[in-house]
Amino acid sequence: MAPNLTTMQPAETIGMLADYHFPPYITLAHMFHAPQGWAIRNREMTQFILQYVVDGFAHYPVEDIPYETRRGDLLFHRPNERHSIIKEDHSPYVCISLVFHFGTSAFPYEELFKHKHQLGNFADHPVETMLSQLVSHYRQPGLVHQMHCQSLLMRILAEAAQAFETGTTRAKTDALTMPKLVLIKNYLTEHYSREIQIRELEDVSGLSKNYILTLFRQHVGMSPMQYLTWIRINKAKELAIHSSLSFSEIADRVGYSDVHTFGRMFKKKTGQSLTQFCSNLIYS
């Protein structure tokens, strides 16, 4: 039986990670669908943890600080920080868990994240795709896949740190722009199953096309149509997890009449097929 690397001291794991020759050392990367009654209480790990909510809701106290986590939330906690994960019976909980360490190298987590555990919400953000890609590479053996894992982990940490750093600088402008942005995002979310034209977003918000594009690039990191694609991708993931629909039925539900076009789009944006996404999902 293979040892559980996540419960070991960092130095003890290095000799068992054959394809790792330098930090960061990743000892776990998986997507987990929590069954009914599942919970973790008062656990302490000797390594760093990133926990991303793919779907659902859970209470996630860290060192007696209560957090409520929903889809898109990314949590980070340090070695030996006591934490619990408690899902509610009526709500699903699907998460991506990354457990990692840097060996004897110092990692400047306080400089990057201060004392924060909740790093922000990354639903429909490139970080979400990077996390899925990391899990996919982690499941495949060999040095090249491990290097992809390490590269993706560092990019995720960098993106999270940048979002954390810039979040406070936008507070004043958010008060003026966020209502319009939320209005457009809600419209896209409500009508994702059909073709949407940019002029519809102008009519809904009262803003010009150029201003809408600028607003999305500044606050979302992509164009409205790219955001619509991310909505469709995540709706497809939800349907794959929670329904028995075929891939062609899922494609039709999220606005694609041709399953092959949908398949190419999904793989281009996520780095994996919908079949691979489903195969990466662990239920127990």
Automatic annotation (TrEMBL):
UniProt xrefs under PROSITE patterns: HTH_ARAC_FAMILY_1, HTH_ARAC_FAMILY_2
User: Where does the secretion signal sit in this chain?
Assistant: none
* SUPFAM superfamilies assigned to the protein according to its UniProt record, in alphabetical order: Homeodomain-like, Regulatory protein AraC
The record's Pfam families line, in alphabetical order, gives:
HTH_18
What gene is this protein a product of? rhaS_28
Boundaries of each HTH araC/xylS-type domain copy? 182-280
Keyword Cytoplasm present in the record's keywords: the answer is: no
* InterPro entries linked to this entry: Homeodomain-like_sf, HTH-like, HTH_AraC, HTH_AraC-typ_CS
Q: What is this protein called?
A: HTH-type transcriptional activator RhaS
Q: Which UniProt keywords apply?
A: DNA-binding, Transcription, Transcription regulation
